[in-house]
Amino acid sequence: MKITFGIITLNEAQNLPRCLASVQSVADEILIVDSGSVDGTREIAESFGAVWHEISWPGYVRQKNNVLALSSHEWVFSLDADEALSPELLREIEQLKSTMPPQDTAGFSMPRCVFYEDRWIRHGDWYPDRLTRLFRKSQALFTGGRVHERLELRGTVLKLKGEIEHHSFQGTEDHRQRCRKYARLWAEDKAEQGRRASWLAPFLHAGFRWFRGFIVKRGFLDGRRGWTIACMSTYEVFLKYSLLREFQSTHKLPPSPSPRDGL
Q1: How far from 140 is each of 76, 102, 145, CA to CA, in Å?
Q2: How far is residue 51's CA from residue 36's CA, in Å, rounded to a whole number?
Q3: Which of 51, 80, 131, 255 sits in a 20 to 30 Å window from 109, CA-based?
């Protein structure tokens, strides 16, 4: 079982060394598809022996599918530059490589854990966030809109226990800016699809998100950080539906954020 670790990048010099160091011992190929980095990302990638391709930014879905098309091996592990393999997940992958998975297995899912304000977050909406990241490329396709691409996979998906470690946000302000960016991308997608929202929608959806994450999924167990995450999630959902209402009233979409805003 040979595995290509595929990563899309744009100015990821800060995150990439941690990511690549975590996969180097199990990767049969490290494949980077970049969209115009100017911060030394390429030099870091090549220092780890990565295969480098540069493709102008076509959107998340198409760039992820570009990785599948360019990978040398049937098995692909799709990883983001701000992620890394935990030691437990690394051991599980080592075991998989020594014993070929059953023929009907199309992929493997694993939980993802976010490192936020110097602590791992293990409650609320963010955990366990189980994702299928290791899969056969011949049975896979990324689909979706401007953001939050989905992996469509034909076949059986087995579960791994080890976690992907996600170093997502540099601070509260970075978190807030990403909320704004992703809310606008979501609203643009939904407006193009003809979806509409009532004047109550921002309040109802935002209130539900806070209650689900902080109370039902016990985000309160993460203390101050859990409160911050619940409030940020509420803010993003409120902004999503507020922007959707704005777009449906003007019948005009604003320009999408530049990929220079980050992947």
Answers
A1: 10, 17, 17
A2: 15
A3: 51
Q: Encode pLDDT of 90-123 as tens digits.
A: 999 999 998 888 888 999 999 999 999 999 999 9
What strands, in cross-sheet order, belong to the sheet with 112-116? Answer: 83-85, 164-166, 112-116, 119-121
Which amino acid would we find at residue 63?
A: Q
- The residue behind tokens 């366990």 is 128
Query: Token digits for 126?
Result: 């963010």
**Domains of the chain from N-terminus onward:** 3-166 (3.90.550.10), 172-261 (no CATH)
Long-range (24+ apart) CB contacts under 8 A made by 67-71 are: 67/6, 67/7, 67/8, 67/31, 67/33, 68/6, 68/137, 68/140, 68/141, 68/142, 70/6, 70/31, 70/33, 71/4, 71/6, 71/29, 71/31, 71/137
203-224 pLDDT, tens digit per residue, is 999 999 999 999 999 999 999 9
- Asked if 232 and 182 count as a contact pair (C-beta separation under 8 A), the reply is no
Query: Residue 136's beta-bridge partner residues?
Result: 75
Across the chain, which distance is largest between two alpha carbons, in Å?
58
Do 165 and 86 form a contact (C-beta atoms < 8 A)?
yes
